[in-house]
Amino acid sequence: MAQEKKYKLGDLTFDTEQEYREAAMDLKRIKGLMERYNVEDPEQAKKILQSVKAHPETFRSPYGQKFVVKLEQAAGAASAPSSASRPLFAQQQDKEQKKEKKEKKEKRAGSSDKEKFQIFTPRNFAIGVVIVACVIVFSVFAPRLFSLNNTGDSNGDIRRNMVAAYANSQAELKMQLYTYYYNVVGQTEEEAQKDAEEGLSHYVMDLSDRTISRLTDSEISDIYGRLVEGGDIQNNSFVEPSEITVLKDKLLAAGLSGNTGNGVEGETAVEAAINSMMDYQHRMYTSLCYQYSLLGNSKEDAQAYANEDMESMFGEVIYSYNMGIDDKQSYFDSFMKRGLIKDNQIVRFSADPTAYNLPDLTPAIEIAFSGEEAKAYECSMISYAPAASVFYEIHAGKKTGYLWFRNNGGNTDYISLDDETSVTVQGDFLMVFGSETHSGEWFYNRQNIGIKINGDTSSMISYVHDLTY
């Protein structure tokens, strides 16, 4: 069993790896905010606080809590909060300051009686004249000075920061979309680039390739205005188009969302790779369990099937997040030998079922059982990563059902197609459509998929090629 250890980050120590990772992520968020905003500016600090309060899960560690306190202090420079809402240590400072002022006042009280009749001296009169003159000069020139130094710079900075954040977010999303279409879907570089750009077209503007720092204030103001008019910015907050949310959900399901491949601060390449693998396996296991539950399996059966698939795909499945570096190194070496980690990055399974000798049935099929008349279905794949099992959702009118093909035949059961040709069973088959259920084994029957049910091999799934779009 791996020896438990403490995780240290800066001046804080954590008992669990999860707490350590949360603190590291908070530090990344804080660094990003400090790069985009002047957190000492009261107005900008208020804006950040509003966003944090709207999303309470933004910070989860003591580092994040300290940063929030700092924002509250900065925001208090513009409008001091009530004593009930201020931090406790700030209230304590107020008490100490009041006490100090009181002591100074009492100390001066003894000498005030001697000086109270000495106010109107020639020296004090001269000082008073100078003060009045300064007030007059300040009242004349101050408005001009402030008009020169505050010609919308604060608002301009906010607009520039928001436009920069908008562009940076798009650039990150574009990279993730390209990775998804190229590595997961298997498109060519040109196709992946085209689809990634098409994904960003759901925004009001595509700024992913723009260098914001080189734009003039006038250009920034024009872009900001167009984003507000288009609805991507409302009340100085970003509003994500629903189509972009759908795309991000797809990336999340593929394990690509927010994955830069660099790990969190303080991680070695081995730790980063294994942590990514644990997250990837967890997502895949959860998806498989859900898909097996769609077929009517109990929770226990769905988990059992999913565990078998995971073992088949990965060889070794990581169940514990509390591991030492020796355990992680052992897993790293094992996955390297299996080709599941290359160049310190995990290799994700292809979304193409044919890469694993599994059927690709989209977008339309016909199914005939035991010589009965064939029925037509619209067919769409719902698998997360079809390497051991592939799942399809089928439609006929308003009715919906599911198909499951498993790659577990082992080439042991042979089926004779004719006197000269035999094929091997590929694996288990199950169809659930309303109250209708069919189960058996599937095999490749020349151009179609054959289904063997109770020894009968006449059932068939046919591809539909003459589609009208």
Describe this structure in words.
- By secondary structure, the chain is an alpha+beta fold.
- It is 49% helix and 17% strand.
- The chain has twelve helices and 16 strands.
- A hairpin with a 2-residue loop joins strand 15 and strand 16 (456-463).
- The relative contact order is 0.06.
Keyword list:
alpha+beta; eight-stranded antiparallel barrel; 469 residues; two-stranded antiparallel ribbon; 17% strand
What's a quick, concise take on this entry?
The chain has 469 residues and is α+β, with helices and mostly antiparallel strands. The chain has helices at residues 17-36, 42-54, 62-75, 88-115, 122-149, 153-184, 189-200, 217-230, 242-253, 269-294, 299-314, 325-337, and strands spanning 7-9, 12-14, 233-234, 237-238, 341-342, 345-346, 364-368, 375-381, 389-396, 399-406, 414-416, 422-424, 427-433, 436-445, 448-453, 456-463.
C-alpha end-to-end distance: 59 Å
Distinct helical segment count: 12
The strand count comes to 16
Q: Strands of the largest sheet, in order across it?
A: 7-8-9-10-13-14-15-16
Average the pLDDT over all residues and give the rounded result.
76
| Cα gyration radius (Å) | 33 Å
